[in-house]
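I'm stuck. Please check this protein.
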Amino acid sequence: NSLPLIRWVLAYDLVADSPVFNSFPHEKAARAFLGYAERLLWPVARSRVQTGDNQFFSVDFGCYVIGHIFGRGRFRNALGVAMADYAARRLADAVGHLPPGGYSGEGYYHNQVVATLASLYDAFVEGQTGRRLFDYAHPPSGVSIRDILTVDYHTILPGGLMVPWDASYFHPLHVKMNLAYLARQTGEPRFL
């Protein structure tokens, strides 16, 4: 699963410059993170057919983050650069392969994975490159990150539960970060 690895890498990147980690073996950590991604994420990313599903987003976002941080960011590594470049193209294509409106068709996993990773993808790209993808209409469908996140907002029932998608029962909106990010990017508090 790529999501725990993504969290570990982002947490590492957040604290790595702290004086507490002055004697930490950063090169060894970079090799470990890249090695894990090379063995478990990179082969999957290169073998999957282009889609816009949750597994595609999670594997390619993992390659993008790990590749960028350890290929271009903290360290210079050819594998990291290759993973980041490949995954960046595929993530943009994944957004554009979602149907018009931005719903992935995966019910519960739309909120849990697709919308969450779309938020993180947009924030990471903007933070690292200054490019804002939030309202960009990704070809061929013209879907934007805003569209993907707005699906979560439109599927919350008046009592605060989500519609009973594939799980066949009403459930609370588990990942509220997507709505917070939508409100932040649009300046519209109604999404909170």
In short: Residues 71 and 78 are 6 Å apart (CA to CA). The longest strand covers residues 161-162.
